[in-house]
Amino acid sequence: MACMEWAVRTIQDALDVRLSIDSPNPAALRRGLEVHRGRALLDSINLEHDRWAGLLPVIKEFRPEVVALCMDDTGIPATAQGRLELAARLIDGLTDAGVPFADILVDPLVFPIATDSRCVAVFLEALDLIKARYPGIRTICGLSNVSFGLPYRAQINQAFLVLCLAHGMDAFILDPLDRRLMAQLATAEMLLGHDEFCRRYLTAARAGAFDFLHVRP
Amino acid sequence: MACMEWAVRTIQDALDVRLSIDSPNPAALRRGLEVHRGRALLDSINLEHDRWAGLLPVIKEFRPEVVALCMDDTGIPATAQGRLELAARLIDGLTDAGVPFADILVDPLVFPIATDSRCVAVFLEALDLIKARYPGIRTICGLSNVSFGLPYRAQINQAFLVLCLAHGMDAFILDPLDRRLMAQLATAEMLLGHDEFCRRYLTAARAGAFDFLHVRP
Asked: How much is the average pLDDT of A132-151?
């Protein structure tokens, strides 16, 4: 708890940013939300009985945005349909508890591809199903889990980023200092029609965002 | 015609490969198919009246695989629905003429993103519609059109490749000597579940396919 308070205060004293508060310890999460200035992102609630029961009062009190993971006491479902069912229980449960729909970010949860060749396909299918059932729901995922155990993880994370964007992923837990990754993000966003007249891409290119490619156009 | 014959013979004398025969001149296409050993890929037919009338007899005679472009005498439709309608006329017209469904590759046609921020979104939507209407139909596209007029085209082509793969694109016109592009292809194929136990990815990694990344894992 003391660490959480120290971290939140120290970062917010130095930078004008909102933070994602993440801890397995509900008391530390509560302390982080108490000292956070502005609205925090709570990462994360899930359907495990103790986690749900412990965090719901905290969420009602501090009203952060909430990352909701598709898992319960039996673990993470192997199928896309199973993830959808957990997403539905999360979204319905949170909105029933008074959390605005717009404050929820669902994470369908991705496994390392090295453990199961089909796990990204299942994850992307789950993403499609969740977005079809709940139009407008926001989604999030961590990028780097997918590459665990394989060489050249940055290469895998980059390709996974674009696959997620192709399926409408809204937010990522990623390293904003990874220049290749951020270049990939700007490029895919342009291709997907989110960058009118390619303005942000061209601005990034002029600012040297693609200099890692070495070969000038 | 003499150039086409020379090119096909010269390449097939040197390499054991099948070729894609591409020319705006139907007589040159016919000559290419005549001298080609094995089955060629004809790139391409479309619904322009003269092109269709000129090539259909050639296709019936030589039975190549056929790339079919979603355009007619009025041009390329601006909407995904319009591309689907042309794809349907192409597939139905070719199969009615005796071309096996499995020999057709539909190209929904992509414009440069610099000309219209929505054009890739329309293209990917067309791809979805065509695959939904004709399950099992194969699709193809050229990668580099999309980046025309912008800096760092290789970066754009790479991200576009992954977006296309996410929507089930089956084949590409691409530069197989572009190592970054081929690494991206191997990575995305693995993530999409087409590389059991990550065998091809790991083999490529060990063979140095990702050495351009400089930083070793």
From this structure: 97
